[in-house]
Amino acid sequence: MGIPYAAPPVGDLRFMPPQPVNPWDEPLTTTKEKPACIQYNNNIKKGQPYGMYGVEDCLYLDIFTPAIDENERAVIVLIVTDHFQNSYNKSKDYAPDFFIEEDVVVVTISHRLAAIGFLSLENELLPGNSGLKDIVEALEWVRDNVGQFGGDLNRITLMGLQGGAAAIDLLMYSKAKDLFSAAILHSGTSWSTAYLQEDVRKRAFRLGEIMEVPSSSDIKLLKDLQGIPADKLLSRDLHASPDDYFKETQRSVIAFSPIVEKQPDGLITEYPEDSTERINIPIMMGSNSREGMNEDGTWGAATGDEMCYLFKCPDLVKEYLKLENNVPEEKIVQKKMIKMWTNFAKCGNPTPENDEDLEGLQWPPYTVENKEYLHIDKHMKINKDLYKRRFNFWDQFIEKWERLAVDGVVTESKNKKDEL
Question: What is the DSSP letter of 158?
Fold first, then answer.
């Protein structure tokens, strides 16, 4: 635990793409997890106190393995962020015990967030996406070294929740796609308008004004912002967006997150919907019935609830003991989920034939023709046509208003009652 994969991104390296870590000559003691990357915590349900926590020197990864040998086990790399503004607290939130028991290597990565990770001047001086480039740097380290920890460099599955899933989705369209062989996306996609930002150069200069270091010089602005305490930056970076931006665009309240870079040799160079890149790796993706909701006492699963079935959440230790002793339906569901996720990492198929733990369950690949998906409840079953009514509504809506549009714009409806 606490293995450095890049140089500490502090001082003149703040905001910049990750730099190689200096090699060490003596054995490096890595038995303690490092603090999370600095961030402003606004989730009172997390284990951390409300407000600022974490550090800037945070580019470390943790490896959990069943054994140090030459067995070449499948590897799962976990990435969890909330809109690239907050991350999780590693094994204090999600411990990898259940995957380890299935003979899988688990890697967790810390990467920079918010303005610290995604400030951009949209030029060669500061192209942006440093937080994503942290992930790529870590994956290169995993590729080069995971064999020393009993892992198989040819079976690396990226698993992400929310912003972590969106990050993985973006990387599938980038030159980093060769660093992993499969992907699991929980409640997130790069196609969401919440993530990719625009005109971020203006936001960088506005942040300088907010921090009382206004400048018209790229170099001076960068140097001045590198000298401001990180906690002060992150307490105000949200205000760098244009006035009424979120009201006008109906987007999430985010100022700094991934962008499409201006440089042709950048990491993210086009919007995913514009890409002609062929995705040729197996992908498992899904969402919960109460996405975006966390009300207590309501039916269904909120965003991320499934993670405590797959990882051991320390706050639920007593609940796990109850499951072990009573073996209710939830324990059966949990066991099958762990098996399917680790099967997918091992062979690209969550339900291979002759898996006794799955009791004959077969999860077919989703295609445009069959539109089959797995519904996970007390009793798992294959359903078809997920959200069919919603898709039909939007198909009809778009078709109708396309007919009324001139050059893609509807100026005024003949029927005043026509509206969303």
Answer: E
